[in-house]
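Build the 3D complex.
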Amino acid sequence: MSFSALNLDELTAQRDRALRDYEALVQRGLSLDLTRGKPSGRQLDLASALLALPGGHTAADGTDCRNYGGLQGLPEIREMFGGLLQVPAGQLIAAGNSSLSLMHDSIVHALLGRVPGAERRWVEEPRIAFLCPVPGYDRHFALCERFGIELIAVPMTAEGPDMDVVERLVLEDPQVKGIWCVPKYSNPSGVSYSDETVRRLAAMPAAAPDFRIFWDNAYAVHHLTDTPVEIADLLALCAESGNPDRAFVFGSTSKITFSGGGVAFFGSSPANVAWLLGHMAKGTIGPDKINQLRHVEFLRDEDGVLEHMRRHRELIRPKFDAVDLILTKELGGTGLASWSNPAGGYFIGLDVLEGCARQVVSRAAEAGIALTPAGATHPYGDDPRDSTIRIAPTYPELDEVELAIAGLAVCVRLVGTEKLLEQAR
Amino acid sequence: MSFSALNLDELTAQRDRALRDYEALVQRGLSLDLTRGKPSGRQLDLASALLALPGGHTAADGTDCRNYGGLQGLPEIREMFGGLLQVPAGQLIAAGNSSLSLMHDSIVHALLGRVPGAERRWVEEPRIAFLCPVPGYDRHFALCERFGIELIAVPMTAEGPDMDVVERLVLEDPQVKGIWCVPKYSNPSGVSYSDETVRRLAAMPAAAPDFRIFWDNAYAVHHLTDTPVEIADLLALCAESGNPDRAFVFGSTSKITFSGGGVAFFGSSPANVAWLLGHMAKGTIGPDKINQLRHVEFLRDEDGVLEHMRRHRELIRPKFDAVDLILTKELGGTGLASWSNPAGGYFIGLDVLEGCARQVVSRAAEAGIALTPAGATHPYGDDPRDSTIRIAPTYPELDEVELAIAGLAVCVRLVGTEKLLEQAR
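Done.
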């Protein structure tokens, strides 16, 4: 029964029960961490064989991977990931260990060197703004803030960003130069973009001739079900729509092999790839090709990647299931919260009553349960409804996830009933 | 006997002999490459054991190196290289595979974020200039050119850059924000900076409060003799002189282990390190700690690094000796050329008669001997005396080096005698 339908006495009783549960929770002195989307040790163990690789040091074309050179990265790893990231291998760059670095560098080079189509360097613009579908990923926002790029929040729907809003802002404001997208199993809501959303993103008219979609396909192969989500091919749709240079595609093996020791990718139109390589050439003599070769030997091919991801799924699916089970048991029907049940990715989005998220996170912290700060999912750390909480269940062991979520549910019940009581008075 | 003392007949005879030798050289149809400072395959083989490392995945402090985090890099690799680079380990950052990237990023962050001491971001300055001791390293110059930074050439002496010129320019012009230095076994002349030069660099008054020394200590342990050159400790001298934030120190294992798969370092004052880490934190979640651990296991400690470098020396010293021997035999006493006999590093600087370097490189190319373009050692590719040629003898096998240098000597003789004839007429 929805708690909002309870009378004052019933609500007070529920609040008292929640308070007793919370006090008991604090007494337990837990120390649990649901903050970051990190693979667990057991997931990393799946790639242990990487540590003793590569067996050789020669690439398919005879390149000695130990020496300098090969700016675009090994052809064989670009072939392996081209299909998975929906980028032709010739238009894919295989770089260092961090796709966030490639996003950072793309912005730096657009600031300091004219991106194809631009009338001037972004640093010469009076103002630069990026659209940020919310809830979204805090590191995307922080990257923009560091360069003084204005963040404009756009609501997410079940099909991706609200395209009516996006189309209007991109058409009206020539200073809107970019949009952040996590198109598949999005961080943190788990939403995947519908084909129609992708089509509209590719085709919409933009006031800025140098408008870019930052397509962070971080969870391209990170499925949690037997029916993998396929998203539409943004790069192809941009080309078909006469906007060939609109998409910057990013991906990595950070949550496939080793989070600290993987390979990151940038894919785009031939013009954008030539632009980025031209700038990269001034700043490096080439990526770590040995690590790329190591990945080629270990993952073998596209099927090898998908097979490896099934082993990840076996380890993390039970954690996602546990979260849903416990939240349903503890909060189902109360109307105090709703949450996503994602088909992939690394996060569960938890929505609590308006004005309650910060308090829930703070109560949880007092009980030894660390959560991503409330608001982190929004530009400037400001969730105007103060209702979004991000749950990252992959890193802790299953029993820790269960303990943490049961505790979190107590916090939601306590803060929610207090809020309803306050409103009822 | 110096060719400049020959009469016209003798000179013509020498030119004719050189022409016959050159024609015979072209007939041989060689294909040799002395362009880049790359280790040879046999040098890379010295670090073969790296390919099967690390044996574990846990750092000394318990960090799982496979996962995210650890922005500053593993403490143990910073300890290992701190002494060798003359930077306290706490002030050293261990990053990705490229020190050039760290130089690039340092400039980017100074352009886009105020470096300690700066009145404004460099991108807001009307003009930025860097001093470039010449001959110097083309990639340093290219990096500046890409960002529109003006390059001002400063002559090198046997003790480093001409400090009278440096001190005057740095004192007079507040837009001079940096100087490029390869302080030990410098590229390409092999010169190491004297203690007095380092002391003056650290202590000289600068008009720009945000003046920086880009100290590319690329050849810190790359000795070719039994008496390793030790340079003065720039970072300490800067601190003692009241200019604690003046030095950016760079280094890497690119020419110690694998050129494409090593570890790069940035060292500086606590304020500069905090500044750079703050910006890096927006663009990455951390470096490839697995590769750092791999290097720790393989190189073990400072002595392990030095021992490993002795094995490199055994492989490359004969190539440097061959260059000197052949040049002495073919050109000694002719006055047509002089060359360095470096005590370390990767290059030999060859000086030919004024106005001859481009022609020598071009003649050599026609004979199948590839050299770094003449002028590459100077800003904007412009060597005003057109006399400097860079020889990189490490990559080819010894017999190839011998063939290439003998051929190069023929080119020098031909172009030199033609030049003298032209002047004599």
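Chain A has 13 helices and 13 strands.
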